[in-house]
């Protein structure tokens, strides 16, 4: 058996505040991790960690981006015991869908309709809890109580299969205290870095296509 970690928080961003005002939920964002140090998180949010757009499935880090600048936010960590096969499948899915230059985007309309209990699955579009739910469901790591497009972050606090390991402020989270916090980046630096990564990813895909041709 192996462990998948569920990280929940209320980040304090504009979108997080809007969701919190509408739902009154304690947590408005959810991510997955596959190591107990929570060194890499997987979710659907700000792809560069700082700006609202572009958004979609991506990697997150507790010592940079929004998390690096917002230590005083409530968070929780839950553990889910899964089979080795489910763990490997979930990890591969999360990594593939969160890879730089991926074809996935943020499901903003699905997020809005989720509160109204209206399902809106969109091809290659996910909001955070929908993304996590889809990965866990498709990997057979967890049976969901409802459709992935209707799952909200706080729903995970009520699942009996999960064990709560931590509940408190982000700055007091033991795993984050072991990390070196990255200095904040300017908007120009963020977009410059993101464009370089996107260009590199596009070049890599082009090289793969050329190699297949020959």
Name the features.
single chain; 214 residues; alpha+beta; endopeptidase fold (from Nostoc punctiforme); six-stranded antiparallel beta sheet; two-stranded parallel sheet; 7 helices; 8 strands
Task: Describe the protein's topology.
Blueprint (H helix, E strand, L loop, with lengths): L1 E8 L4 H10 L5 E5 L7 E6 L8 E6 L4 H5 L4 E9 L1 H14 L7 E2 L1 H8 L9 E2 L1 H11 L23 E8 L4 H4 L9 H27 L1
Parallel strand pairs: 6-7
Antiparallel strand pairs: 1-2, 1-5, 2-3, 3-4, 5-8
Q: What report would you give on this structure?
A:
The protein is α+β, with helices and mostly antiparallel strands and 214 residues long. The chain has one domain (2-213): endopeptidase fold (from Nostoc punctiforme) (Alpha-Beta Complex), CATH 3.90.1720. The protein is built from seven helices and eight strands. It has helices at 14-23, 65-69, 84-97, 108-115, 128-138, 174-177, 187-213; strands spanning 2-9, 29-33, 41-46, 55-60, 74-82, 105-106, 125-126, 162-169. It has a six-stranded antiparallel β-sheet with strand order 4-3-2-1-5-8. It has a two-stranded parallel sheet with strand order 6-7. Helix 4 (108-115) links the parallel strand 6 (105-106) and strand 7 (125-126). Helix 3 (84-97) crosses helix 5. It starts with a strand and ends with a helix. The model has no long low-confidence stretch (mean pLDDT 89).
